[in-house]
Amino acid sequence: MKNCIVLGLAALGLATQSPAALAREPVVLKPNSPWQLDYAESACRLTRSFGEADDPVVLVIAEYAPGDSFSMIVAGKPLRALTPRSASNAELSVRFDPDGQPTDTFVNIGTLGDFKPALIFGTTRLDPLPEGFFDDVDYDTDWDYQDPPEVSAERRNAASRLVLGKGKDDRVILETGSLGEAFAAMDKCLDSLVESWGFDPAMVAAQERPAVPLESPGRWIRPGDYPKNALDSGQQGMVHFRLMIDATGKPTDCIIQGATKPAGFEDVTCDNLLKRARFKPALAADGAPVASFYTNTVRFQIP
Is the CB of residue 259 less than 8 Å from the CB of residue 242? Predict the structure, then answer.
């Protein structure tokens, strides 16, 4: 269940679209740089630039643990067609073609260095999870863990276009080319990352079960936890975290792997996670409880 449940803190505000907005030809941008892979201390990040060199769009794909989920930032002036003026959130559709299934998702709108607007996505996949995948999870019973469907190597190789839109109207297309090699390189980075945490990547991959929450992660961070100063000033944030879990299912440490500005959301996140989060421990291939880790994302958002 790693990186699959986004912890929402407040009702999400719907971005409105002008009735005068008409279907238009999408902006298609080709790459103007190779992929750059950053072996960062707490994450693996792929970065590539698209479009005109003097007015580019930058794509950043980040993974914080092995799996098929990733976070994503797309930034640059050509994205203004996707962002309501002066808005801090937007509802967009995203898919990876060919044959991608569109997903409607809320994004935060911010900046990425000198690039703006920046569309900040939470959890994304090349193939979205089946509709209602987690709907049958009853945390109040002894439910059975179910692995999310894997994204195949064939799908990674085939995916070659990132399509961003509003509703059924495609607005911006990034011609990424096949993502197979880029994600294969990311996998090696993630193995190195897991090793730096003190785990054997092969043993983690062979686990019978990862660490599983005993209750809905949405209960760990509550609306009353929103930092007052940030709430009063209308500031939003997103925090990517990792919990280190012992063989009894108790978190022993909380590490911030990435966060948007402003500062202040990180302490609230870790303080409450260490206090409230509890797990069924991970099980090794032989069924024995073992220490492990759990990663997820908290989105602090004001309606």
Answer: no
Least Cα distance to 253 among 189, 197, 196, 194 occurs for: 197
- This model's pTM is above 0.85: yes
Distance CA 237, CA 298 (A): 8
Q: What are phi and psi of 181, to 5 degrees?
A: -65, -40
Six token digits for residue 23: 């279907």
Distance CA 282, CA 230 (A): 36
pLDDT at 89: 86
| Distance (Å, whole) CA 84 – CA 96 | 23
What single DSSP character describes residue 142? -
Helices H / strands E in the chain, number of each: 5, 18
Neighbour-count burial for 55-69, b at 16+ CB within 10 Å, e otherwise: ebbbbbbbbbbbbbb
* Domains of the chain and CATH, by start: 7-16+23-132+147-196 (no CATH), 201-300 (3.30.2420.10)
- Sign of the dihedral defined by the CA atoms of residues 226, 227, 230, 235, in that order: negative
Residue-wise pLDDT tens digits, 38-92 = 999 999 999 999 999 999 999 999 999 999 999 999 999 999 989 877 778 899 9
Strand partners, 46: 37, 61
CB-based contact 81:92 (threshold 8 Å): no
Could you say which residues of the chain have pLDDT below 70?
1-23, 132-145
Residue where the block lists tokens 């996949």: 125
| DSSP secondary structure letter of residue 217 | G
Going by their DSSP bridges, the two strands 27-29 and 169-174 should be labelled as parallel
Q: Parallel, antiparallel, or unpaired: how do β-strands 115-124 and 70-75 relate? A: antiparallel
Residue with tokens 């108790």: 250
